[in-house]
Write a structure and sequence with these properties.
Two copies of one chain form a homodimer. Helix content of chain A is 14%, strand content 38%. Chain A contains five helices and 13 strands. In chain A, strand 5 and strand 6 form a beta hairpin. In chain A, helix 2 runs antiparallel to helix 3. Chains A and B meet through strand 3, strand 5, strand 6, strand 7 and strand 10 of A and strand 3, strand 5, strand 6, strand 7 and strand 10 of B.
Amino acid sequence: MTTGQCTRHPFDAVLELEFLDGRGVRGRTVPEYANMVGPFGGATAAVLLRAIEAQPDRVGEPVALTVTYAAPIAYGEFDVDVDLVRINRTNQHWMARLTQGGEMKSTAMAIFGTRRQVWSDTEEVMPAVGEPHAYPVAVWPPLVRFLHNYEARVVDGGPPTGEAAPSSVSTFWVRHTPARRLDFPALAALADVFFPRIFARLGRLVPAGTVSMTTYFHADAAELERVGEDYILATARGHRFAGGFFDQSAQLFSRGGALLATSNQVVYYKASGLQ
Amino acid sequence: MTTGQCTRHPFDAVLELEFLDGRGVRGRTVPEYANMVGPFGGATAAVLLRAIEAQPDRVGEPVALTVTYAAPIAYGEFDVDVDLVRINRTNQHWMARLTQGGEMKSTAMAIFGTRRQVWSDTEEVMPAVGEPHAYPVAVWPPLVRFLHNYEARVVDGGPPTGEAAPSSVSTFWVRHTPARRLDFPALAALADVFFPRIFARLGRLVPAGTVSMTTYFHADAAELERVGEDYILATARGHRFAGGFFDQSAQLFSRGGALLATSNQVVYYKASGLQ
């Protein structure tokens, strides 16, 4: 029996911040959340959201988060400057800038808001799918480290097979492995769990990277707590691939069909020739 | 016969800027583009995009634009500070802040990029609809001035009728009236032409306003030039209305079916009781 020991989840290492003077915070990239070049963009979104969420005068819960990926983040330390741009009755507008050695790498704009008892309804219907265990676990390339923190059960559109496809849709049941509860930073990261949709269309990997991502949070903290460590259903697709930039949208549902978040991103890609 | 006279389109008045020292510009709200409270959010998006587009060292065309609406803009003059945050090989990251009397009203983040000859494809299919003249022209409330600059032919989901509806979808053929060519600022404004989807669901007007909007531009300038003054097909819907915030997405197509832009926004709303 071990005593007084506990293993920190690697995603909590992603979110670990040192508080500097004023609103500044310092973080570190986490090896388990490395992508092929630099850290997983979802981890960057998560830590920027966390840097804002951790401010003592933050009120409410995340409503919207836009993150731009301006330059590759080097492995190691980074600084985040946070700024409260505007306070309204029901929401706050925040900005954050991630720098390394003074060089601007990433920016974020976030809206936090207080939800109220008003008419509410979900119009987007969860795709009709079976239970998670009815689907095979995706086998990811060993080089893409961050994906090994997620157990994805492929309902549709798994890892590229070498064959081009007419549709870029992927639908996964997904949860953390090892298990971890869902919170807002985890949801912000999961919104970026999908490989670039160009890989799905071409059936192969090409140079590609998110330029800007916007996530709208629909769930409140109580709803995320009810999800706990369970699977969520995540589905994504591209709309247009045009001259080196494409967009992709994602929806994230609880197992019970609650739309937890919708997310959109624009991605840079290279793909010479017809295919 | 009049000589040397020409009538400026009111949308070109929206885009008229005075260049100050450095990167700053000064603009003015235009009465024809007033919304119920303050200027039309689409006009704000357009002028912020224009303030960046007009910078002498801007390279490429708009790829992404996120605008946050932090506080109501008063009718009259405003200042925009523009900042080039990052230059990459194929894209530039820009920020802009709209202030009035030093008070922050709106922020923008924009990516400009250079499109290249690479594999390209549109996956999103334009809804199957008839020609514009097969549909009635929408009759807007006289109070919403900006809408009178657009001729919208209602394919589906016209102005609120007093009846609640299970779907928030609206689909319009839309063009400027009087006629005006389509350019990037005009496209940025058109992405916001839809009334808040909560009105469609409840069948009536409730207090609502865009908090943040993100538009991805898929068309290049040549494609917009081919559209010219013609109708575009614009369709929008909401996904989840939750505790005072909802999201809505929009797609804008050329008559030939080219996906010109996709846009998403999160909107604040009030709606007490069950309906």
